[in-house]
Amino acid sequence: MITVLFSLLPYIIGSAVVPVQIIINLLLLTSPRQGLLKAAAYVSGMTITRLFQGLIFGLILFESPAMAEESNGKNAIISTLLLILGILLLIAAYKKWRGDADPDDAPPKVLTMIGSLTPIKALGVGLGLPLVAAKLWVFTLSALATIADAQLGQGSSAIVYLLFIVLAESLLLLPILTRILMPERSQDLLTRLSAWLTQNSRPITVVVSLVFGLFFLYSGISGLLS
Fold first, then answer.
1. How far is Cα 164 from Cα 51, in angstroms, rounded to an integer?
2. How confident is the model at residue 107 (pLDDT cuts 50, 70, 90)?
3. What's residue 205's pLDDT?
4. CB atoms within 10 A of CB 33
5. Which residue range forms the structural domain that includes residue 56?
6. 40: exposed, middle or buried (Cβ count in 10 Å: 0-12, 13-18, 19+)
7. pLDDT digits (tens, 9 = 90+) for 185-223
8. Considering its fold, how many domains does the chain have in total?
9. Residue 143: enclosing H or E segment and its boundaries?
10. How far is CA 98 from the centre of its chain?
């Protein structure tokens, strides 16, 4: 199980550092009314969607005949997903470098309205974001394929996938925990962090997308050729 978690680290880190999900969480958390409840609803929505993704696609991958055919520890499904993910991330890095809009990013007008959302609407945003963000889709599918390929059994696989979700959402859960433990002192800190991320989301996205894009592209190509 520890070996599988180590194999999932690139997907965990990649999922965790997607700037738009962190910015939305911080904007909700620092909103004047019910900020903590809104952020909790938002993260709960993302968790519910990821659980359904795991239930549906996990069963498909477990039943896939291709999972029984290994090639140097990597199968065609994982390698193809890695290749797609690498290409998506490199395209995102290029578009961000040119100043083009990333389809996974929320429009500026939407971000300005985030703080005024109700907890129910924040839950809806959380439910929808993992479904409309292409990179989050492929991170999750790659993690599920890796878990299925490890053949841990359904019980252990479910535990590993739950750990993947928790770790992938760690940068969302940490500010919420900070707000709970330090309700007054954390407000200013989280507000400044949100402003910094919003201002620097472009270079962060370029660097993260470029590094992970090259890594996944190499892993996908080497897996298909091996």
1. 11
2. low
3. 80
4. 10
5. 2-225
6. buried
7. 887 888 888 888 878 878 888 888 888 889 888 888 887
8. 1
9. helix 134-150
10. 24
